[in-house]
Model the fold of this input.
Amino acid sequence: MRDPRWRMALAVALVVFGLDRATKILVERTMTLEQTIDLLPFFALTYVRNPGAAFGLFREAPQPFRIPLLLAVTAIAFVVLVGYLRETPAERRWVVMALGAVLGGALGNLYCRARFGEVIDFLHLHWGEWSWPMFNVADSAITVGVVTLLVSSFLDARKPSQSTSQPAGR
Done:
């Protein structure tokens, strides 16, 4: 693997996958399901299992439908991300790292879903009665990666065209 894009993306993906697995194993071994450990007034560790996708999407769908659907969506996303990585110039390091983060996060949740049929979530943001749905390291990496890709795309769209065409009439 001589291409620096692949090495960088793979390194980021492996770090994200490793951190995701390690934190999920730690939570699974040290906490009971539904247990909450308050850390800050707005942040807690709460061990839950999410059978659905992001924010519990498809949570109520029958398992024979839900799991193949979510596995297929992950596989399609993986193929699209690898294709995007192939087209990304090596000097666009932030984009390459963002793609690695999304790939690592997708693999982390894919592993959980394939092994348990659901994803272990434990990070919980809340304030008073307001509560954000629980998430994990993989979800965080996916979110940071996607936001980085969107910002990069927005900034690229604002750059002036690198056209070398001559003005009309010359």
In short: The chain has one domain: 4-157. The helical segments are 4-30, 63-87, 93-116, 137-158.
